[in-house]
């Protein structure tokens, strides 16, 4: 279950950029590096991009693992497939299962009205993709023409936002599947109806399983923010201060507003968010003082992360967690601070977590005690958004054109070669083609890795099924497990989700009496071929992120200066701090993409952001922001430190000089 936020975008953290991609280069060397017209070796840049993509393949964002949604989807799929097998309608069961699976993918952690709208639109457009694919499957010429057209339309759906882009992808995937092979019943309108019914079954079950007055989705988003904080505290200090946690907290506030929380309920849920935000700010301030005792700062951060993890788990888990034990350990560590300033910050770090733990022990204002008044859902304008992105050179329009070319030609090739499972080629193209070059490269590596592991997992399930002579039971249970992996990990680790969807397809075929080994080699070959083809299209005249990254860095520097001015002048810095969080996230995303993009074919003239420069710039930004936060918190305790302002000015001046040097080329 997912909320569309920048925090869910794949990107590299500043700590990872600095520690793995390069070291800090002095400013004079940076200027000399660009002044002599230095250009990076193409092969080394592409090797670096591949290495970065592989690292992202094995990273699991634990805060975004959707255990409940995965289990819910797995149960629905097991029931649908079991009923289909029992009544002798396996083909119908597949179409029902696909409808339920894609409705689950379109679900979101939000108010019931917004969830219903998202799942309903996802189901409807998935069914339309199924219908169109089935109708053109017998006419190759029409299939090819419609393939190009629907690919452009689905790519351009990104103009309606991240949710529109996701639904466009689902539509295109099912067009490729049902248009390229005899999937489901083979009757277009029947499969269309079955996908709708399957989606409706999941929607009813999902909404019934999350009673509105229990505010499960609101608690889930708050828990996700606490878990994100806990995950961050077990990384390097630089990575701890990435703005991901701030974004998760903002998402939680948004969901609370969407659910119409009022009175005691709003005060209760917002109290958790305020406590987490206060804790996060102290963690950021620790970066400014870590030179005094870095080991203590790391241990303090990790101890606070353990408390946050227990709080997050308690908010959504069926059983209360032991928060008292890790909280006592944190308080014991607080009392051993090596100096007064760290003691002040340590106390500031522990107090909000104490408040959150105490709030857990009091009666929760949910259920019959909840105070909810959902606001009216305002539909965003469709046509103005579509017209806005129609201009030549717009990123959304360029993505639509690339997807049209990549998918259309892959669809053409699949029809020309006419081998079993050839639909796997355009289907894979639809899954892995992303609007940005860095995201596409990473997604290709993830898809290939996930497909290979999914095939191995399928072989394991088949071996077990044959060994115990329980083909049907093992197959249906495997489909349930595959559905859990797909939905549970789609936003946490894409390769694991690919393992799930690959296993889902192959185990269905095994349940339908097909040989497990049939088509495995073909699918692997088509996955690799699709990846290579998408990379060729993506790296031809690519839209690099370098200029976007430099613009984002300049906006971030300006936001940090405005935040510092508010603190220095004694004004309320809340809005300025929120702006810094937003601009830091935008800069982190843009710079990470720019620093890991490979060289392309027939490139447009644009500066390249060197990984070492990117690491230094992001480090400077984090340190500058941490100096201001530390001064803000210490000022509340009358513990101002003039040396912090001196460090801030020097760090931000250095950062702005580096940005100018990079822009000058």
Q: Which structural class should the secondary elements be placed in?
A: mainly alpha
Largest sheet: none
Number of domains: 3
Specify the overall morphology: globular
| Intertermini distance | 43 Å
Number of separate strands: 0
Question: Helix and strand succession?
Answer: HHHHHHHHHHHHHHHHHHHHHHHHHHH
- Uncertain regions spanning at least 5 consecutive residues: 3-40
β-strand amount: under 5%
Overall residue-averaged pLDDT value: 83
Separate helix tally: 27
Radius of gyration: 26 Å
Q: Which percent range fits the helix content?
A: over 70%
Description:
With 665 residues, the protein is an all-alpha fold. The chain has 3 domains: 62-211 and 396-538, no CATH class; 216-369, no CATH class; 546-664, Four Helix Bundle (Hemerythrin (Met), subunit A) (Up-down Bundle). Helices cover 74% and strands 0% of the residues. It has helices spanning 14-21, 27-35, 42-57, 67-86, 90-106, 112-136, 140-156, 162-180, 188-208, 216-232, 237-240, 244-258, 263-289, 294-316, 324-334, 340-361, 383-388, 395-417, 424-432, 437-468, 471-489, 494-511, 520-538, 546-568, 574-596, 611-636, 642-664. The protein is globular, with a radius of gyration of 26 Å. The model is unreliable at 3-40 (pLDDT under 50).
Task: Pick out its properties.
mainly alpha, Four Helix Bundle (Hemerythrin (Met), subunit A), globular
